[in-house]
Amino acid sequence: MRSLRISKIASLVSYDTVFDVGADHGELEKILSQSDNIKKIYAVENKKGPFLNLSHNVEGLTKVTSLLSNGIKDLKEDVNSLVIAGMGGINIVEILLENEDKLQNVKEIILEPHSDYELVRRILVILDYKIDEEIKVTEAGKNYLITRFIKGKATYSNDIYRYGLHYNEESNNLEELKVINKRVKSTLIEKKLKELENHEN
Ligand SMILES: C[S@@+](CC[C@H](N)C(=O)[O-])C[C@H]1O[C@@H](n2cnc3c(N)ncnc32)[C@H](O)[C@@H]1O
Ligand 1: which of 24, 25, 93, 147 to mutate, most ligand atoms within 8 Å of CB? Predict the structure, then answer.
């Protein structure tokens, strides 16, 4: 079955030449390959095992080029859309900062970090990208936040850096509790948060 999260990531791609770091199973490549708007997809893995698996999964997809490479080190000049999904925010930020000079032609960066959203937003703003769109997805009981950043200067309030564009007072309590519980790690609070979230969705 097609992942809703991956479909939503694909729906945010608005340019024709994509570089997908950590392409893994190749699901995004399968979806993007079907779109007439997409010319080329570079699918990147940095470890041999996952790379071989990826190459096997995208076999026959003529628009896809698999690369065994680290992060955006080998990002090509023709790339205008960068995707990094399904990893921790710190890893994502390090991938970008390690080769920040490669971003010159990249018009949009679509990110789906599993953690450290505030760090990701603040670093993207320093790199001269601003938040263009954010989508919340719930799949198999887990919440994901996918953000498209586009070139441009921006400054945001601390709340937006922390919670994103869809920040509002109503969600503040839950989001704040999540942050606090990361620190105190209470299973009872965790359980209550899950209950409240399921109730909201
Ligand atoms: C959990 S998977 C996510 C796969 C897919 N992007 C998704 O969202 O479902 C993360 C993948 O990123 C790869 N990865 C992690 N760091 C990387 C890096 N610096 N360069 C390339 N691939 C990396 C891992 O090998 C792994 O296959």
Answer: 24
Atom of ligand 1 lying closest to residue 86 CA: 8
Claim to verify: residue 145 and residue 195 sit in the same structural domain: no
Shared domain for 20 and 92, answered yes or no, is yes
Strand partners, 67: 44
Residue 71 CA: nearest ligand 1 atom is 20
Whether residues 44 and 126 share a domain: the answer is: yes
Q: Is 80 touching ligand 1 by the criterion CB < 6 Å?
A: no
DSSP result, 98-138: HTGGGGTT--EEEEEESS-HHHHHHHHHHTTEEEEEEEEEE
> How does pLDDT run along the chain (201 residues), one tens digit per residue?
679 999 999 999 999 999 999 999 999 999 999 999 999 999 999 999 999 999 999 999 999 999 999 999 999 999 999 999 999 999 999 999 999 999 999 999 999 999 999 999 999 999 999 999 999 998 988 889 999 999 999 999 998 998 898 765 455 677 778 878 888 889 999 998 888 877 765
Instruction: Please state the pTM of the whole predicted model.
Output: 0.88
